[in-house]
Amino acid sequence: MRTVDLAIYADALAGEAAALAARVERARSRLRESAIEREARRELPRETIARLEGLGLLRPGDERSLRVELRRLKVDFAAVEALQTWVESRLRA
Predict the structure, then answer these.
(1) CA–CA distance from 68 to each of 19, 65, 73, 81 (Å)?
(2) For residues 48 and 44, what is the distance between their CA atoms, to the nearest angstrom?
(3) What φ, ψ does residue 24 adopt, rounded to 5°?
């Protein structure tokens, strides 16, 4: 393998890793927001909740699917990191 090809591939992988890291953080953020919204639903009057839902400020939270997505994204990220490590080891060889 040519070093230049490995370097270009490493750059592409770095972009993929950054994109996955951003998706992981968005999933974590959605989980935190879902917990906040769940608590608000317990404490606010139904009329207020209905109005907030109408405004799109309270969304139905499916925390289970968010957790599944977060786990999958973490596994995907780990796989990309493993490939990055392999490519970088070839670059140093």
Answers:
(1) 18, 5, 9, 20
(2) 6
(3) -60, -45
Q: How far apart are alpha carbons 74 and 46 in whole angstroms? A: 37
Counting every residue, how long is the chain?
93
Average pLDDT over the chain, rounded to whole? 94
Q: What is the DSSP letter of 44?
A: S
- Six-digit token string for 18: 């950054």
The pair of structure tokens assigned to 93 is 């060889």
Low-confidence ranges of the chain (pLDDT < 70): none
C-alpha–C-alpha distance, residues 47 and 25, integer Å: 32
Tally helices (H) and strands (E) across the chain.
3, 0
**For residues 39 and 19, what is the distance between their CA atoms, to the nearest angstrom?**
31
The pLDDT tens digits for 51-69 are 999 999 998 878 999 999 9
Tokens of 92: 């140093």
